[in-house]
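Hey L., structure's done. Input below.
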Amino acid sequence: MIIKGKVHKFSDDINTDDIIAAKYLVSGDAQELGRHCMETISPDFSQKVSPGDIIVAGNNFGCGSSREHAPLAIKGCGIAAVIAKSFAAIFFRNAINIGLPFLESTDVDKINDGDIIEIDLSTGIIKNITQDKNYKTQAFPQFLQQIVESGGLINYIKKKVSPAS
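Output:
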């Protein structure tokens, strides 16, 4: 699975309140949440995102509460993947549940805001097209790629329980 898009760069410790403010948690609609994604730290963020873009961040991305709304807002605004130095454990689970791919990489400091990158989830190769450089990280496991391709864990399970005839 290949993901290609423009980088939106963030720092360390981006928490779930930064990703989606608590006042918007009355909705579970991904597109509605996406309209407000990151607005407390980057008010026009959702207007700058094109479908397929990628968030690149530092350490401890997704820390804070266990709300599934955070990865849902990220996916709802059009972000196709997140690369960070590290993730909060609860963000891992919630991202998988909604089908948002994420990768850990120590090379995020080498990637700039606005760079165009291409991620090959199967190999863990991150190509920085803007800088003509490649970075290697761990491949995204095949079964997690299947969950992403299914649109999330629930859809993946539904396909496994009642496969198309």
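The longest strand covers residues 2-9. The helical segments are 16-19, 30-34, 45-48, 69-76, 89-98, 142-150, 153-161.

-- N.
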